Amino acid sequence: MAPKHQAPRGTRDLLPDETARWRWVEDRARGVLERYGYGEIRTPMFEDFELFARTSGESSDVVQKEMYRFKDLGDRDLALRPEFTAGVMRAYLEHGLGGRTRVHRLWSAGPVFRYGRPQKGRWRQFSQINCELIGSPAPGADVEVITLFVDLYQAWGFRDLTVLVNSVGQPASRRAYGEALRQWLAPVHERLGADSRQRLVSNPLRVLDTKDEAEHALFRELGAMPRLLDHVDAEDRAHWDAVLAGLDDAGIAYEVDHGLVRGLDYYTRTAFEVHDRSLGAQSALGGGGRYDGLIELLDGPPTPGVGFAIGLDRVLLVLEERGLATGGGEVVCVVAMDGTRAAAGALVRELRREFTVEHDVETRGFGAQMKAAGKSGARFLVIVGEEEWAHGRVALKDSKLGTQETVTRAELADRLRARVTRTEDRP
Ligand code: HAM
Question: Angle 85-94/49-56 helices, nearest 10 degrees?
Fold first, then answer.
């Protein structure tokens, strides 16, 4: 019988094996972020609902359908964060960071919440790594951020990623483009779903973001889609050209995707995403872009910014499917005999200062311990036999190399140190 309580729909538990893989992914990312000079910022998991409503855009799915909005006992209108950017900008203004140094590089990681229909790659509680470079309008900032984005995936073992890029212009050019989209879609207007028809009025770009395959088929029927890039002004065009040139110089593989619009409304100029087809409908592994009007929208001074978020659950899903991110470090299993239990106990404690060590706590017989060690998948087996121990020695078996040798107690740690592949060393 299923237990009465289960994790809420769209959430899940990470058991130790999985957590080990997550930690590996997070640790790798932390190293890259530190080397890029990003500082970690931790903001609350909930904020005023109004903060998200203002920044994500009233017509976005995130605000319209996906917010975990609630009243607390003090009748405050709050929401669990559906993303990091809004909270990070709030904190940037609240702490007057703009007045200290001009450019800030900030990253965060942790759970975010969106009420969507759970499916492969889509959870209601999921985790993001989020990066923001605040204070620079220069195309070089976009290039750095996209380079960091790609380097994070590289550090996790992804190869041959292609970044999709587009320019989403400015509110004025988007309005002009919206008009062009309305005209383009007019012949199929009656065949669009209710959601898209509504969006055609409130925010036509959102129509391109539809998850409905039938609508994408309609778009293909219509042929050449108007391009936002044809509507951007000269400055935006120059910025775009400079970003692409910078990506070329950096050797970043990208593809221009004229249909790329982001799910949040605050973007200006550069927008980018990476996808992995193995994920099916929820294929975005991460995305971001420039948001030059966002801080002003929060009543701050005009401050440009560019950033991205990576969905860690999807990254882990792909890595697990490909057998990458294998998780915890290598384990040493110490097996004792009746006469060496106390000595083995002391040895275990000593080794645990440096290595991951398992041993029996139930005074089971030698045979049972050996069987358990075999099952545990530990790479190293240290057998503290009575006779060898009397001569200050133990047997060391290495299942990876297929070797067995007798080493002195003093040599043991050195020998293990030379062979253990640590989690952080893995390619
Ligand atoms: P976003 O595209 O909404 O951007 O989300 C980033 C990533 O989060 C997606 O590419 C996807 O991998 C993951 N994700 C989104 N929804 C789900 C879900 N329901 N389940 C699992 N993973 C999901 C942002 O959030 C922006 N704040 C990024 C940004 C930062 N732009 C500028 N700065």
Answer: 110
